[in-house]
Amino acid sequence: MKKFLIINGPNLNMLGQREPEVYGKDSLDDIAKETQEKLKGKAELEWYQSNIEGDIVSRIQKAFTEKFDALVINPGGYAHTSVAIHDALKILKIPVIEVHLSQVYKREEFRHTLLTAKAAAAIISGLGKDVYHIAILSQIN
Ligand code: DQA
To answer: What is the three-state SS of 105-120?
Structure first.
């Protein structure tokens, strides 16, 4: 069975409470459980969330020596600013899929620059919580 690391950046621990009209009503935990349920027998998922840029960099670096088949990352606001997360992603040899619950190009202009996405094989944005499931499906078929 394929193994995936799913990294979530700042404020994604507040899903369900945070701007539900933009990000939906489910918590990150709800999304993790639902996604794992849908992929039962097909994929093993490890979820990680941090509000701290350096901790996310360290988790990505750790993945370099682990046995994941792909990394799915929602960098949250760091997608728009973080050279450090971009550079850490570039170290990995496995595919990186960047996901965003919201359609970032329909939103404020500062969300239109995706620094981290330059290190990703693909981006999925705007399909709500399903972005995680779809990103993983794209790597197991
Ligand atoms: C987000 C989009 C980002 O612009 C924002 O800062 C987030 C969430 C998304 O999933 O739509 O925190 O990554």
So the answer is: HHCCHHHCCCCHHHHC
Please list every protein residue whose CB sits less than 6 Å from any atom of ligand 1.
11, 74, 76-77, 79, 100-102, 104, 111
The reply to whether the predicted model has a pTM over 0.85 is yes
Cα 82 to averaged position of ligand 1 atoms, centre (Å):
13
Task: Please give the Cα distance from 17 to 38 (Å, whole number).
Answer: 24
pLDDT tens, 40-92?
A: 999 999 999 999 999 999 999 999 999 999 999 999 999 999 999 999 999 99
Query: Going from the N-terminus, what domains does the chain have, and what CATH number goes with each?
Result: 2-140 (3.40.50.9100)
- Span from the CA of 115 to the centroid of ligand 1 (angstroms): 13
48 tagged catalytic: no
